[in-house]
């Protein structure tokens, strides 16, 4: 366990602030936006990264997963911004100086505005665009990086498709992201406004929009192309992808439905992961299914702010299932809960790390655990209304205040 990576994760758009060239910045400004509030300065991690990284060091953590914002690096198609590359070079150097292993995500949901105008994640052009961006970053920063996640939750577009189908039937569903479905009429008006805002496109295809089967495949093609291009530049890089996985549990004859759900979430991606160096596993809860489909959480189950069931046992279950089907190292790139009661997060961490230790004892190659998230931040369409962080932030002053759970990671791991 000495080389185990223990740390936390963030996403650039959720913490940096003022990612004005990104597609979600456009979506936030719409008159009928689905975003409950605007991201603004977020938690100003763009300027305060050194303070945040030093806090991780002080808490005994040794790894930090963060993303590079594509729209900062390539604000216009084919034009790369040297100043932004230098910024991320400084972030990487700060990690190294503080004994923190950086785990870099090349795409965490947000994309350049120009990409959406070009057809976004339903256009075949995205494969080459993403490959070229990743190759450029690897050429510039590869000497300071080791672990790279190409795409965060590559199956999220397919999960969004499922959400929209289910939403149309007025049923509940577990979705591991902050999506606002409270105002369907405003949502539809907002979609029309978004088409106009992106230059009159026929459809807006951000990474968090529902996809076609072809669009789902494009993501994996983009992953493979980017992985191979970065390897060609920097053979030492360990490269993988992350998927959002539920602990799918069948009840009352739901075995076939559970198998279908798992195939959609995980199994059908396996052919595209065989050359990866590790797998990024992201899990928050379980999903119960019967022969008719998904079921709500048990009536008396504790729930988080996201309305997930509080079920920390899910992570160990999913680790074991993934390992049974994919024989490469597993890195837990996200796992956590949204709650104002930090004692719940402390208990959650104790349970999940106990499960990770049991997996290691059974010689399952788990190489790290990165908690979501380092700080309370911008939870996409739900704004700042959800508290996933190990550190709270007073956004009026941007003052950081570590919670007890921040120190619980190393405490539980060393017990």
TrEMBL record:
InterPro entries: GH, Glyco_hydro_1, Glyco_hydro_1_AS. Pfam families: Glyco_hydro_1 (PF00232). GO terms for biological process: carbohydrate catabolic process. One of its GO terms (molecular function) is beta-glucosidase activity. The keyword Hydrolase applies. GO terms for cellular component: cytosol. Gene3D superfamilies: Glycosidases. This is Glycoside hydrolase family 1 protein. It comes from Eisenbergiella massiliensis.
């Amino acid at each position: 366990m000495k080389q185990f990576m223990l740390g936390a994760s963030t996403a650039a758009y959720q913490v940096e602030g003022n990612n004005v060239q990104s597609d979600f910045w456009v979506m936030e400004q719409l008159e009928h936006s689905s975003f409950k509030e605007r991201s603004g300065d977020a938690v100003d991690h763009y300027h305060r990264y050194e303070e945040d990284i030093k806090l991780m060091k002080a808490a005994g953590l040794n790894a930090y997963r963060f993303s590079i914002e594509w729209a900062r690096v390539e604000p216009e198609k084919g034009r790369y911004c040297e100043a932004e590359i230098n910024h991320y070079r400084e972030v990487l150097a700060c990690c190294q100086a503080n004994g923190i292993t950086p785990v870099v995500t090349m795409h965490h949901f947000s994309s350049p505005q120009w990409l959406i105008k070009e057809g976004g994640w339903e256009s075949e052009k995205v494969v080459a665009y993403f490959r070229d961006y990743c190759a450029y970053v690897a050429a510039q920063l590869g000497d300071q990086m080791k672990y790279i996640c190409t795409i965060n939750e590559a199956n999220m577009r397919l999960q969004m498709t499922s959400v929209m189908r289910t939403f149309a039937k007025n049923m509940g569903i577990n979705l591991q992201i902050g999506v606002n479905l409270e105002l369907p009429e405003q949502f539809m008006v907002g979609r029309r406004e978004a088409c106009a805002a992106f230059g009159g496109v026929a459809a807006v295809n951000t990474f968090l929009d529902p996809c076609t089967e072809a669009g789902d495949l494009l993501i994996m093609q983009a992953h493979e192309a980017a992985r191979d291009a970065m390897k060609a530049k920097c053979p030492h890089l360990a490269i993988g992808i992350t998927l959002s996985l539920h602990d799918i549990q069948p009840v009352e004859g739901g075995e076939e439905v559970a198998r279908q759900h798992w195939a959609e979430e995980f199994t059908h991606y396996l052919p595209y992961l065989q050359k990866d160096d590790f797998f990024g596993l992201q899990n928050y809860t379980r999903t119960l299914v019967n022969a008719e489909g998904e079921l709500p959480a048990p009536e008396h189950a504790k729930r988080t702010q996201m309305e997930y069931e509080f079920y920390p046992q899910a992570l160990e279950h999913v680790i074991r299932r993934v390992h049974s089907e994919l024989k490469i190292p597993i890195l837990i790139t996200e796992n956590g809960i949204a709650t104002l009661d930090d004692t719940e997060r402390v208990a959650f961490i104790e349970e999940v790390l106990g499960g990770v230790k049991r997996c290691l004892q059974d010689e399952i190659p788990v190489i790290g655990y990165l908690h979501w998230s380092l700080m309370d931040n911008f939870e996409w369409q739900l704004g700042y209304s959800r508290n996933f962080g190990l550190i709270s932030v007073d956004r009026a002053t941007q003052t950081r205040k570590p919670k007890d759970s921040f120190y619980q990671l190393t405490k539980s791991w060393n017990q």
